Amino acid sequence: FPPPSLTPSLTAETVRGFVQDISQNQFLEGACAVCAQLIPCQRLKSMSSESFDRRLLQPDTCVTRHVRNSDSDPICEIPGPVLLPHCDDVCVDCLVQLQRGQTPLNSLPNGLWIGEVPPQLQNLSFTEKMLISRVKHNHCIVKVHMSGMSKLRANVVSHSLPMPKIYSVLPPRCDELSEVLAFLYLGPNKPTAK
Q1: What is the per-residue pLDDT for 113?
Q2: What is the pLDDT at residue 95?
Q3: DSSP per position, the chain
Q4: Which residues touch 108 (CB under 8 Å, ≥6 apart)?
Q5: What is the rounded distance in angstroms from the CA atom of residue 64 to the CA atom of residue 78?
Q6: What per-residue confidence (pLDDT) applies to 78?
Q7: Which of 9, 16, 103, 152 is a good FRET partner for 162, with 20 to 30 A between their CA atoms?
Q8: Do residues 42 and 54 lie in contact, with contact meaning Cβ atoms separated by under 8 Å?
């Protein structure tokens, strides 16, 4: 005691390791075509360069559907393996299972395929997402004023929304909207019309 001082080479090695750990490559994520999860790019491999049985990604039952624009359009299955569109990478976890001859548990052919998100449902605001959700979630956050810390109470309540009432006329009238949407204002002052 005391420990020896840092040598210049150890200091340089420590700084190099720190810079490498916070480099952009450590944080970049990409999607896996098999399970559609965001994975660090370092754990992704190109599917075209890997060998495995592609038939493992074709489900036994029909899980995919072409987009229908009206009720009269026929229900048609999308042929071929169920993969994330416009993606050619596979994560290491899925690749190991595929090379063993197993369909990965979290893969899209296991009934997890939901299709492309239509343009009408992309970039929705928080309120719009609440209006079209099938289940409404309530949760309570409690702020402890004495210590200045905040904590979360594990109160979560989920109940279904009256979808037929919402979907009959969009946008709904104000009196109908108050039945399915509520805002709770917390603070020392009463909210104003602004």
Answers
A1: 84
A2: 94
A3: -PPPPPPHHHHHHHHHHHHHHTSGGGT-EEE-TTT--EEEGGGEEEGGGS---GGGGS-SS-------SSTTS---PPPS----TT--EEEHHHHHHHHTT---TTSGGGTT---PPPGGGTT--HHHHHHH-SEEEEEEEEE-TTTS-EEEEEEEEEEE--HHHHHHSSSPPHHHHHHH------SSS-----
A4: 34, 35, 36, 57, 63, 82, 83, 84
A5: 6
A6: 85
A7: 152
A8: no
Please tell me the predicted confidence (pLDDT) of residue 16: 93
Give CA–CA dist 193/183, Å, rounded.
13
Tens-place pLDDT, residues 112-162: 888 888 888 888 887 777 777 766 666 555 555 555 555 555 455 555 655
pLDDT of residue 112: 85
> Tokens 């001082």 correspond to what residue?
5
- Is 133 in contact with 166 (CB distance < 8 Å)? no
List 44's β-bridge partners, or say none: 91
Residues in Cβ contact with 111 at an 8 Å cutoff, skipping those fewer than 6 apart:
59, 63
β-partners of residue 164 are none
